[in-house]
Amino acid sequence: MSIQDILLQQLANGLILGSFYALVALGYTMVYGIIKLLNFAHGDLYMIGSFVGFILLSFLSPFIGNSWAGILSSMVFSMIAVGLLGVLIQRIAYVPMLSAPRLSILITALAVSMVLSNSVMALTDGQYLAFPTDLSFDGVELGNVFITNTQMILVGASLVLMVVLYLFVHKTLYGKAMRAIAIDQDACRLMGINVNKIIALTFFIGTSLAAAAGIMAGTYYGSIHFFMGFVIGLKAFTAAVIGGIGSIPGAMLGGLLLGLLESFGTQIPFIGTEWKDVFSFGILILLLVFKPTGILGKTEIERM
Amino acid sequence: MGNSSNTPPNENNVESIRTGLFDRLQDQKNRLFILLVLAAIATLFPLVTDNYGLEVLTNVWFYVILCLGLNIVVGYAGLLDLGYAAFFAVGAYTTGILTSEFGVNFWLTIPVAILFSACAGCIIGGPTLRLRSDYLAIVTLGFGEIVRIIARNLEITGGASGLIGIERPSIFGFQLTQIIHFYYVFLILAIIAGFVSYRLQHSRMGRAWQYVREDEDAAEAMGINRVAVKLYAYVTGAIFGGVAGCFFAAKMSAISPETFQFQQSVLILLGVVLGGMGKIPGVIIGAFALVLFPEVFRDLGSMRILVFAIVMLIIMLYRPEGIWPAKKT
Amino acid sequence: MALLDVKNLVLSFSGLQVINDLTFSVEDGSIASLIGPNGAGKTSVFNCLTGFYKPTGGDILFDQKKITRKKPHKITQLGMARTFQNLRLFKSMTVLENVMSGMHCRSSAGPVSSILRTNSQQKEEAEITTFCEECLDFVGILDEKDRTASNLSYGHQRRVEWARALATKPKILLLDEPAAGLNYDEKQQLISLIKRIRDELSITILLIEHDMGLVMKVSEKITVIDYGQKIAQGNAEEVQNNPKVIEAYLGKEEEEEEVA
Q: What is the ipTM of this complex?
């Protein structure tokens, strides 16, 4: 394979990886933008999304089959179910902690994350589960590079979700309220906006996007595991920071960039696949130290 | 009964018994007496138990050291560190590599490990302690992972299978081989850790940590360099972890990267939070609970950590100050 | 001899011009005030002086040394202390511990000497305690030294702030609305305290204040700002009769007539 072929292949890999990162990063960034909390449990909600999808698909497949119809309908139901779970978590665990010192809410989020991952670990006995899809390996050939239909559909689905989100945030009243709350919560309350409802909605949307990514990952990689949320949580956070935390287009951009960087990075002889995680974390740390606002983020000035 | 509480005599009996007991504990002389009694019990413990019990309690003292170290970072300075296991790994691998590959005497590896842990603390802390607490948490998590992956991938650290055959240390010719030897070693280390923590808490540095934890900007306005103060906490905690790692390597005589996973860092954090962040007796109790709980409920098996996580969640929601009661003023 | 020299200070936040070419100075050993209507930019000036905001332009000289854009803790170490408008005490710590925070930059015991409790460390701790008690005594609340700071009355909490700032052994003390929330008696006590700080401790004072009575009684030089610019400067009498100052506070008479 020539250099071009390798690069093209990695481009394809990078795009799909980037889509997953972007979808999960969106949830992080939305929640951070609105209540300045880094939801540790977010990555685990991605994992839960894939497991709920697994269950749904197992039930639905006798009726709609294991192919795209089954996958997409499971995805929709999973998004709703896990989105509601996200709201539930917010109500039970985060709302009571809003007036507590920062450290407390961070530890609470950590505890929630552990409860989620360990529950699934207990239920699955730590085993990898094969995602019950039945997809063909058909695809398109571009020279020496092979891009499967699966890859294209998943990237397409991610783009659809991102476009829908963008339209929602910029064209609807709810979206406007979300953006307003991110700027000044108290002013919004004074304007009669039901801040709590909008925050819950934000959690719902962010979580459902992560759930969608989870099912896509299950479809793409073929198996799911209770610990898959951990690494993706970190990577998605990195993506959100790259793009500028709190910025929705930033999360999309950051996700794609990170996916591409990682894919191309595996081709760098020194790094390879063993060190790619170190490579990504290294990017995160360098970013936070030198440019914490990321590409599209705004510098926050704290008023004293 | 100088410091009696203000609860009226008809108040719940349990509450007044508890507060009465802790009032007595505030008294310096009483506290010293109780500490001596506990130390005596700990010293005589091996007489009443078998090797398995010794193994468990040695583990307890080991976690006491780690939890006290993390307590300085999280409890005193208020920095959420999710990669504490990295320092523990640095100490363990330093000792492991120096003794196995280079035949260095165990006791000489300790100052080297301290130096390396302190350096790791500076490298990780230096650029990142300026960050907001949420970012710091994730970055320390990332660093913890980086250290683990490095340990897993390098040859000198034995790769994924780790190092084996680490020599057991000897003191003045007497070689430490049995669990009872290590029990006393770790007990002594735990006592030192407690002593050092206590002295630090009640010193200029300890106060500075509290100022920075309570209100960073006000502390800066008072002339306190918050980044330097945080770094001191971070490096001190790192040293605790490093030293614990050295002795861990000597006791286990084999170490692998899997011991230093994120779960480990979280468990140590749990020990700190459970008993009461920032309070030495609380943290010690947290370490006890951390090790003894799974022993008592051994049938839970893989559900052990799940139960812990649920406990952590409940504590954060209903009693974030931990089991140990706060000082009364 | 100007202890504090502010030259052409400019501060803007994403397009909003908060401070606009401000120049003023504070003489060594004087009591000076910075006043102006709400939103004039007074606290922002303090934040620039103490290093919490980075000015976009201009210079600040303290004791002839440039301190523009230095970090807050460095500026405090150089001898500029401040209090906060909305009281930022270390709530869960005792009054004495709060004041001891001021002595942190004037002491040096590190972790090792603290663990070993060396003689010099013990001596230093005793000195810190003694000096902080003196500061508390100076502001009149020594008997509350072991109480938790958040349990004190508002007026006494304010005094803890002042004692804390004094503990940094400053050359100049910046007081941000020290009279806010005080009753008449407490304000009289504040006036005599301000004078005592300058007379007995030789500390220069710069205060931001809304209470005109207090400002006029205590200040030797008053600088008036509005919309981030200096509009007047002088002693109490000069400033009170300055038409620009009256206009800034009361609004133009012509404008009001037009609206009506």
A: 0.91
